[in-house]
Amino acid sequence: MANSIWRIKWLSKAVFAVCLLPLVYLAWLWYADKLGINAIERVARFTGDWTLRFLMITLAITPLRRIKALSPLVKFRRMLGLFTFFYGTLHGLHYFAIDAQWNMQVIKEDLTIRRFFIVGFAAWALMIPLALTSTNAAIRWMGGARWQLLHRLIYLTGILAVVHYALQGKTLTQTPLMYAALLAVLLLARVVFRFV
Q1: H-helix or E-strand containing 60?
Q2: Mean pLDDT of all residues in 117-128
Q3: Residue 123 backbone class (left: φ over 0; alpha: ψ -120 to 50; beta: rest)
């Protein structure tokens, strides 16, 4: 039964559609005027949260594929990684266009003084080469070993993303600690499986 699910022809399209649901929901909140009083902050948090969630899901695929019944999940890893970059880009564009309103003085100050923005920008910037080299042609051009080495940047991206999340508040709350714990488990699993 489990194996037959992976053979469904439209499964990839269904996963793609599901990945778009957060954006559809956000669009509905905007259309229905349900973003609340501080809509700018709501959108920033929403897109940031979904970036982190997609990042964690993407990182979870490698250890989960060790389970035989879940090994076909690997074919969705590239798509989920690109959706991580997509929502991260929306998160960044919201800051530049809506929050900072392309005010270069404000942007320069935020990206040179405020740790929250510096770490967040670094996390997004590290995803750029990963997104640009997500094609089969890029793998052939770079060679498998160099491609894999480059794509280990996702681990650093995950660390920076969690730190960025933790820095958003004046005090450390439970949610970023939960993300940090989850990330630690996912990274530790890679180390363990390497020697198993």
Answers
A1: helix 39-64
A2: 97
A3: alpha
Tell which residue, 161, 153, 163, 159, has the closest CA to residue 184: 159
Predicted confidence (pLDDT) per residue in 48-101, tens digit: 999 999 999 999 998 998 888 888 899 999 999 999 999 999 999 999 999 999
DSSP state letters, 61-83: HHHHTTSGGGGGGGGGHHHHHHH
Name which of 58, 93, 56 is nearest 75 in CA terms.
Answer: 58
| Cα distance between residue 164 and residue 123, in whole Å | 8
Q: What is the pLDDT of residues 148-159, one digit of tens each?
A: 999 999 999 999
pTM here is 0.93
Q: Is the per-residue pLDDT at 31 higher than 60?
A: yes
Listed in sequence order, the residues at least 6 apart from 187 whose beta carbon sits closer than 8 Å to its beta carbon are 59, 155, 158
- Is 96 exposed, middle or buried, given 0-12, 13-18 or 19+ CB atoms closer than 10 A? middle
- Residue 139 to residue 75: CA distance in whole angstroms: 15
Q: How far is CA 169 from CA 41, 108, 113, 127, in A?
A: 12, 21, 16, 24
